[in-house]
Amino acid sequence: MTTGASATGALSAPLVVEFPFTRSLGPVQSAFLTGLRERTVLGVTAADGRTLVPPVEYDPVTAQELRTLVEVEPTGTVTTWTWNPAPRRGQPLARPFAWVLVRLDGADSALLHALDAPGGPASVRTGMRVRIRWAAERHGAITDIACFEPLDAGPADEDPPTAQPRPHDGEFADPVTGITAPARLDYTYTPGRAQSRFLAALRDRRTLGERCPACRKVYVPPRGACPTCGVATDEQVELGPAGTVTTFCVVNIKAKGLDIEVPYVYGHIALDGAGLALHGRIAGIPYDEVRMGLRVEPVWTEDSRYPDHYRPTGEPDADYESYKELL
Amino acid sequence: MSSTGKEPVAVVGVGQTRHAAARRDVSLAGLVREAALRALEDAGADWADIDAVVIGKAPDFFEGVMRPELYLADALGAVGKPMLRVHTAGSVGGSTALVAANLVAARVHRTVLTLAFEKQSESNAMWGLSLPVPFQQPLLAGAGGFFAPHVRAYMRRTGAPDHIGAVVACKDRRNALKNPYAHLHEEDITLEKVRSSPMLWDPIRYAETCPSSDGACAMVLTDRTGAGRAPGPAAWVHGGAMRSEPTLFAGKDAVSPRAGSDCAADVYRQAGITDPRREIDAVEMYVPFSWYEPMWLENLGFAEPGEGWRLTESGATALDGDLPVNPSGGVLSTNPIGASGMLRFAEAALQVRGRAGEHQVKDARTALGHAYGGGSQFFSMWLVGDRPPAG
User: Fold this and answer.
1) A159 with A248, same domain?
2) Is-annotated flag, keyword Transferase (chain B) (predicted)?
């Protein structure tokens, strides 16, 4: 992870959130995407008789269920467009292209896709005739249309055909019923000044909380303000290093992305002087001997930002009365 | 209540999907449609009768639909109408219903369709809960691990015996057998089976945790005039409130959060309830882990602090008890996260309308619906009755 610090000492780092969400298609999108795999473009007949491509399950005007499928042509007319001079990762073409809305012949609505226009933006115009360029390998996805490409100029360019949609039962062998929709979001995460101070102290293996000037409670990790009083915290207080296990659970199943042998103990630890508990792993003691009130101290490893775990100090257990307000 | 100038709000339609681990037979649009059509049918209403649509779902990372209000407008007949989305983590189904109710109470709209949904099968909530935020210590356990220490703290604080959680799980799963829409139908559930199921996050066992479900829930809310036209009985909203607090702060009571008890007190004040245990006939509360039943019984004022588990142990919260809790089978039997709160609110309405079928609580006239979300940081509740509010 690349991290940085601003002039104020506040940290920042990239946060990438990425997941392959899946989608069940339902009958209409299933037929549409399976059709693309078979080089067949399907639309749906709306309540007012219009042919909608791409098709929708429910009428945009009347909300009624739509199920009457029709086939339209792989050729069409650009209804509007914009130039994309610098394609990004995951876009249909790697070289500059036009985003176009194309009304396919036989359809009454337009489909969004990419137009491969080697002639540059000067070669693209509203009203131009285009056709589908099919992907070589098709799996039942909108990317089965690799892109659109200009139709050779000809008489048709001035006078688009008035193609009629043809009835289609939407039935195909081995229909596609779901898709995977990978999502990725790139953030820059900045934890703020208070947490940056906390993290800087952790490098020296010290835990710094911050005291609320109004209620005098000590926050750890500090967040820069007391949420109860609504005022900034600025007085730093060194906590621990020892603390008390206020409560815990024994984890018997592996958590996603964590490489810790089970069973292990996940505990809430109130460091001495803190107004609320931190969480951490309790080790150095058999898991079935961990108890509320156990006195523990942090154990650091060479490269860890946080304590690797907490282990018993050997002191007598804390009295319940001393920590019950922290539960 | 006319004394405050508010329009009385009536629930005249309730609909929900068949809930299941995976509803691969429908798209998201098809899923919400199934619930919405059932609510409209129940209300004797058509799309044209709806003035606005208010929807809710769980956080975007849970299933990746960033703007469902754009994608679902066609399916919900919202074209040309106001449509808005509410977002309060697991409590969202409740908050969504309350926003819709407030639009009617304020006479902004006369009839509002409100709906909440989730397709957990198309994502991974555990992943959504454990994003790798830089500099932060990763949570060392899943959702169950997050809540299990609070359960242990409850047991320590009250001296509750170990088996109470199993009593709740067994009761709710048995109630679900009477609910045809419920996700889990465990015909052979027994107390012994719950108690011998694997210990996941000690003290929480596998059979004491909620499932992961796909499903949706919808309601039609309307004003006095709309209620007069509806073919069936109405459930009337007598009180509704939301409260929030941080997940972690110095002084937080994680066992019995202040925001929860404040929310309940506000609802009871609005409804004129002074003794919830005696005056409320049925409760649908958000219990994703069995022990939260006794915890919420105390938090919501049905039992004195430390006594909630006794109420559960006595059988009072069973379907034939004097305070049935989660007659539908609850979150423990059905958990499409975004819809789970609304399912509680909807079940409360079904109970006072006498429309709960096999899981009907006899003579239920006043019922509470409750939801919470996040790290016990969002609360929403409503109280419904079979008569319009006085005034």
Assistant:
1) no
2) yes
